[in-house]
Amino acid sequence: MTTQLRTGQEIQLAARPDGVPTAANFALVERTLPELRDGQILVRNTWMSVDPYMRGRMDDKPSYLPPFQLGAALDGSAVGEVVESRSATIAVGATVTHFQGWRDFAVVDAETATVVDTGLADARHYLGALGTTGLTAYAALTSIAEVRPGDVVFISAAAGAVGSVAGQIARQLGASRVIGSAGGPAKNRLLLEEFGYDAAIDYRAGDLRGQLAAAAPDGVDVYLDSVGAEHLAAAIEAMRPGGRIALVGAISGYNATGDARPEATPDLYLAATKEITLRGMLVTSHFASFGEYIGQAAGWLADGSLRTRETVYEGLDQAPAAFLGVLSGANTGKMLVRLA
Ligand code: NAP
Fold first, then answer.
1. Residue numbers in the chain where pLDDT is lower than 50
2. Minimal-distance CA residue to ligand 1 atom 18
3. Sign of dihedral through CA atoms 93, 97, 100, 104?
4. How far, CA to CA in Å, does 181 sit from each of 139, 159, 208, 213, 281?
5. Measured from the CA of 252, which atom of ligand 1 is nearest?
6. Per CATH, which fold does 132-284 belong to?
7. 90-147: per-residue pLDDT in tens?
8. What is the pLDDT of residue 1?
9. Which of 46, 80, 114, 206 has a C-alpha 20 to 30 A away from that of 241?
10. 0.90 exceeded by the pTM?
11. What's the CA-to-centroid distance between 150 and ligand 1, angstroms?
12. Does residue 157 have its Cβ closer than 6 Å to ligand 1?
């Protein structure tokens, strides 16, 4: 049996950015889909994720994931419906997550796809609170910088995808006070009114150190760092002795080029004298905890104790704009692109 010849659309890397990316770095291209081979499925993508880490893959530099290639489709997390199958394990009609976003139809090796339960939660949640986003927050606060009952927890990029979930998980883990930083008054209101933070810091208003000291007069036990530079420096100053820092991201430097790096340098000697633990993490090393996490988080979603937001851009042609938006703070909660 041969697969019907189909065409699809994909977003390719047209040029590597120098500093802040622009729409000119991307191209929307039509292409003919390859025929399915044994063990493959054809997925009609319904949602795709845009994530800050993709900025690093636009540069031609070695990292934990290979760089995107010029003139080739970008990739990343997506969810969709199986419309054709030559797999013995995944049938037509299943909803799957996989790693071929940035296109409308994807030919996927079934062994790399995961069937998700849309009875448990809407498909889009598997890219957000029930996906690597949520797992990142959970692993950072349970395995990397373990939150203990009574801890004061500080979270940066707190109104974003990871941060909005992390604040609520910190609370579930028994934190006594949860402090978030985000850009602008609207996001700060959201932290307090929707995501359960006890205190909100508007880092764009300046004096981050002063604001953090006021929000945490007795110091901070755990810091989830998504930003780096000035945020990390301020957190180290605010930490109590023996504090724990999860190094999750450093978005303030993702668009930096050459000498134009963020200015603040964290005082690592101060960290040493306070016996602070700084520990990096990659969510890919925590996939073994996915089942355990989804079990818990689906329950929190269902009973309303985990509140989520998404910022949604409509259509594949808007994926570059969504990606540029997630780098500049255009999102609250998870940034998603609806494809169908
Ligand atoms: P996100 O928080 O939804 O979006 C990024 C947010 O960063 C923006 O909304 C923006 O919010 C904030 N931001 C941008 N530039 C900033 C700056 N100069 N200073 C302070 N905040 C800035 O994205 P996400 O997917 O949840 O990712 C959050 C962080 O976790 C990123 O650093 C990402 O790379 C990292 N991450 C790491 C892993 C891992 O495995 N280690 C996995 C997932 C994510 P404002 O409007 O508040 O500025």
1. 1, 3
2. 252
3. positive
4. 20, 8, 9, 13, 20
5. 18
6. Rossmann fold (3.40.50)
7. 999 999 999 999 999 999 999 999 999 999 999 999 999 999 999 999 999 999 999 9
8. 46
9. 206
10. yes
11. 26
12. yes
